[in-house]
């Protein structure tokens, strides 16, 4: 009997099928998910579960005429309850003459983003994302250009992963065989998160609120920077302002920011956020405090600010991070 694997992560997806969707895009995506699930090593085993979703109670007709019956509709409670990580929208492959989906998609996408889900649009789903103002017309134009030419478009604002555009929690894919790249990106992001969690939970230099800067060795820091770091660490739960901290050590903010950036790679304000989220990770691992208590003890203004800054740093909400840390901490 093979050893029981505890160090795994389950990824939940909702696959929304729009009329005229491409069976090729969907089959390529699902086949690649299954291959990633079966080929992962036992240290980083990924498991995927998904539900097919239709706009209403009727079967959804694909571009080739095949009708697909789904288990959920947009009105299903499961669309907004429980833990869901990704909403994948399979748009039509051939065109976007019907603008009706934009009307009923807006609240669905809004709720998904509010729940910190990633929303990925396949094929012409990008058209509906633009119509509902979740992406710009510039992004839509770039997406259409790559669909027509087959060439990769890249700019500072639109990173490209071989047929996939990522704009924060909005992803776009050209569909077809490129749908496999969305599956790869999902797995890549999750494995990176697992690696970060394991690195944090096994670190021996971080315990009982002691934090070492990742870039600079303490002996190499100037007195001003060392004093600033110590002051911030000892006062995380209080209101901290960069100007006031600089004045405390007889400096203006610009001078202290230059020193901090040169020696630690972060400004004073960035250091405050970094150490607060760092301390939050330790408190979340202890499992004895609520998210509200963690936010207060770390000095965040409210739970919303805590969630936003924590996700920006770790790529996950505090609740999801705590759950994943539990799965990957000990075996």
Automatic annotation (TrEMBL):
Superkingdom of this protein's organism: Bacteria
Pfam families: HTH_18
Protein name per UniProt: Helix-turn-helix domain-containing protein
Domain HTH araC/xylS-type: 226-324
Alphabetical list of SMART domains matching this protein: HTH_ARAC
Molecular functions per Gene Ontology: DNA-binding transcription factor activity; sequence-specific DNA binding
Organism the protein comes from: Enterobacter hormaechei subsp. steigerwaltii
Alphabetical UniProt keywords: DNA-binding, Transcription, Transcription regulation
